[in-house]
Amino acid sequence: MEKSELLRCDQDHLIHPLHNRQQHENGHVWVKGEGAELIDVDGKRYLDVLAGLWNVVAGHGRTELSDAAARQMSELAYCSGYAGSSNRQAIELAQRLAGMTYPSINRFFFTSGGGEATDSSVKTARFYWKLQGKPNKTKVISRQWGYHGVTLAAMSATGISGYWPMFEPRVAGFSHISSPDSYRYTSSDNTPQGLAAANELEQAILREDPDSVAMFIAEPIQGAGGVLIPPDDYFPRIREICDHYDVLLVADEVITGFGRTGKMFALDHWGIEPDIIQFAKAITSGYFPFGGIGVNDTIAETLDSGQAVWMHAYTYSAHPVGCAVALRNLDIIENENFPQQAADKGAFLLQKLTAALSDHPHVGDVRGKGLMCAVEVVQDKTTREEFDPAEQVGQRLHAAAQRRGLFSRLRGDVFLIAPPVVISTEQINHLVEALTESIKEILG
Questions:
Q1: Which of 122, 189, 272, 373 has its CA 20 to 30 A from that of 45?
Q2: Which residues of 303-322 are buried (b: 16+ CB within 10 A; e: fewer)?
């Protein structure tokens, strides 16, 4: 079928994530991926600037991953992962992750993605505190611009308010503090920026009552919220606060995990460990829907010690095909040293973006850590005033970038950049050149 016919059929029969019929009228129909590129039904190539949705770190067309899936499907396509059943691939993956993640985290529960992982963290935290004799510790604190998924509980943790109105009321017991946005956060006194932002957690815990707060969930670097990178003093202070008030620290490493930021896991940048880690996306490079959580030894021992059944379950938890793909993908991540690649390529990308765009009168901030970067355009560079949403600057910039062969996503007027780790130097140069030309077209 021609593209127009495919899109007509699409409109007649599909409902899309973030569905909006008007926005999809001129949508893409992708038919192939090669490395860091996507190819549409018309044969036009686009640089996959966001690695799908942050997940295709190994790039498109990795036959090692499709072969791993095919082999596993032919041997054992599915079995239950409920207590009383297991499979070799799940056992091996859990053991492998215990050697890769934070030293205190050695036990894992597998899901089909990041939203399920958030729900798993919330339920695990609540169950843990009940077993500890503190049944009132049920509340969750997260951050503005944080993204943790859109199941009803995960959406309530997500701090991007546009996701809320259509589906409210949100789940009770969720609240938000400010993001440690190094570009926009300001403290009311002379407290350093990172410490001031972290201290908002202490204020929120005291406001809610420490005996009622179960967990604080945070992305080490906020992805969908605009690649918000905290100051270096932020997370060490967060860890202190959580320890002082008996609040579990949950690291949402769905985007940052497995090398994206230049470390295998991102809290290593600041020398701290979480109590729970959640992951998805890069663990299979998007070749199979897969995710999970890891819990520290204290939580694991508590879960093991009680007679009560942990009444949490997914049909596809510990899916043998997902585990097989994840294992093969971890081989790629380790053998090709993705953390170092992301650190080196990310530094080169950020240097090129800064050189090309930092002097532009409407580029307010160019930021990045590893292969997570963002370019934020503003109405006034001095005051950091944003454009009126009615001007649709971000949407116009997105369209201009696509005309030049870039495909990504934006948060408002923030252009997000997180390509596959296998991106080449030539492709990075094209990305910077095309984005620079697009900004000049839209903003002069």
A1: 373
A2: beeeeeeeeeebebbbbbbb
pLDDT tens digits for 164-218? Answer: 999 999 999 999 999 999 999 998 888 999 999 999 999 999 999 999 999 999 9
Residue 153: which residues within 8 A CB-CB, separation 6 or more? 118, 119, 122, 171, 174
CATH number of 3-50+337-443: 3.90.1150.10
Residue 111, classed as helix, strand or coil, is strand
User: Residue 101's CB: how many other CB atoms inside 10 A?
Assistant: 23
| Helix (H) or strand (E) segment spanning residue 75 | helix 63-75
Count of all residues that appear for the chain in the document: 444
Predicted structure pTM score: 0.96
- Spatial strand order of the sheet with 406-407 comes to 30-34, 37-40, 45-48, 406-407
Dist CA 259 CA 221 (whole Å): 13
Structure letter (DSSP) for residue 281: G
pLDDT at position 306 over 80: no
Q: What is the CATH number of domain 65-335?
A: 3.40.640.10
Tell me which amino acid residue 326 is.
Answer: A
